[in-house]
Amino acid sequence: MGAAAAALVLLICDVACQKHPAEEAAVKPPAEACDTAVKDDPSPSAIGKPADLSLSLKDMDGKDVALGQFKGKIVLVNFWATWCAPCKAEIPDFVALQQQYAKDIQVLGISVDDTPEDVKPYAEQLKMNYPVLIGLNRKDVETAYGPFLGIPQTFILARDGTICRKHAGIASRSRFEAEIKALL
Q1: Which tens digits make up the pLDDT trace of 146-168?
Q2: CA dist list (Å): 18 to 4, 30, 167, 169, 184
Q3: Most buried residue, 28, 74, 103, 110, by CB count within 10 Å?
Q4: Of 144, 162, 28, which Cα lies nearest the Cα of 153?
Q5: Which fold has domain 3-183?
């Protein structure tokens, strides 16, 4: 990748990953948990629509993982990359949330542009305790959830598969936890 392209990627990540004022806003009560987008989402069109659970991706070991198998749980889908510092900063929070709410939620990490050979040691180093899926060259996945102007991008799906929240950029553990609790 040329220096100009690398600088553009980093600029996009920096802009998209900044915390927004709506970040710490109160979460709506459970009855309204899926009816509006978080204000930090520049493209809220996916909110309130069903997620495409027909997709199947390979995990970092090459096994097929069908997203539909998680219907019935609250699903937190995080799109990330190994080179993205804000993505790396969120992973310990996802590990803790997966451990704390294992009965009710499923965290899924989708690496957007890394190979399984790059992802596996990274996931082991960060002790990722949830499925890590490979999104490299999967335009169908970005079409279903994107477009992505930067990463991280995180979606919270209700038990029925409805997209309830989208975070464009980094968000705090307390924010994710409040949104999950609103759907329990």
Answers
A1: 777 889 999 999 999 999 999 99
A2: 21, 27, 11, 6, 28
A3: 110
A4: 144
A5: Glutaredoxin (3.40.30)
What pTM did the predictor assign?
Answer: 0.78
CA separation for the pair 89, 81 (Å, rounded):
12
**What's the pLDDT band for 110 if we cut at 50, 70, 90?**
very high
Check if the beta carbon of residue 62 is closer than 8 Å to that of residue 116: yes
- What backbone phi and psi angles, to 5 degrees, belong to 6? -60, -40
Cβ neighbour number for residue 124 with a 10 Å cutoff:
11
What is the tens place of the pLDDT at every residue in 40-58?
A: 444 556 788 888 899 999 9
Three-state secondary structure call for residue 143: helix
C-alpha–C-alpha distance, residues 56 and 179, integer Å: 26
* Domain map (residue ranges) of the chain: 3-183
The whole-angstrom separation of Cα 5 and Cα 13 is 12
